[in-house]
């Protein structure tokens, strides 16, 4: 999680596509959990995207754990 110190906006990660986006943006369509692209698709599609996204996140975490195990950081 990175929070930009220069803007007062919270940076959020879209639950469906994993994109980082600023929220709230004045006049923006994005919601707390979804970026403006994913807000535009239907709820059914978004549900599938969320499922895939959570799998990707799981795989990323697994990969990171394996990398840490095989190559511990030098410092
Ligand atoms: Zn999105």
> What's the pLDDT, averaged over the residues?
89
How many structural domains?
Answer: 1
Strand order of the largest sheet: 1-2
Helix-strand pattern:
EEHH
| Weakly predicted, low-confidence segments | none
Helix content percent band = 40-55%
Largest sheet: 2 strands, antiparallel
> For the CA atoms, what is the radius of gyration?
16 Å
How much of the residues is beta strand, in percent?
5-15%
Terminal-residue CA separation: 23 Å
Bound molecules: zinc ion
Task: Tell how many strands the DSSP assignment holds.
Answer: 2
Structural class: alpha+beta
- Number of DSSP helices? 2
**Global geometry:** flat
Textual characterization of the structure:
The protein has 75 residues and is α+β, with helices and mostly antiparallel strands. The chain has one domain (10-70). It is built from 2 helices and 2 strands. It has helices at 36-39, 43-70, and strands at 10-13, 20-23. The protein has a two-stranded antiparallel sheet with strand order 1-2. A hairpin with a 6-residue loop joins strand 1 and strand 2. The longest helix has 28 residues, at 43-70. The mean pLDDT is 89. The site of zinc ion has 8 residues, from helix 1.
Secondary structure blueprint with pairings:
Elements (H helix, E strand, L loop, with lengths): L9 E4 L6 E4 L12 H4 L3 H28 L5
How would you summarize what this structure contains?
The protein is of the alpha+beta class. Helix content is 43%, strand content 11%.
């Amino acid at each position: 999680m990175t929070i930009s110190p220069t803007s007062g906006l919270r940076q959020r990660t879209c639950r469906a596509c994993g994109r980082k986006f600023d929220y709230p943006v004045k006049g923006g369509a994005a919601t707390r959990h979804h970026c403006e692209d994913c807000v535009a698709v239907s709820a059914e599609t978004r549900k599938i995207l969320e499922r895939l996204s959570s799998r990707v996140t799981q795989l990323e975490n697994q990969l990171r754990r394996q990398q840490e195990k095989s190559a511990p950081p030098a410092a």
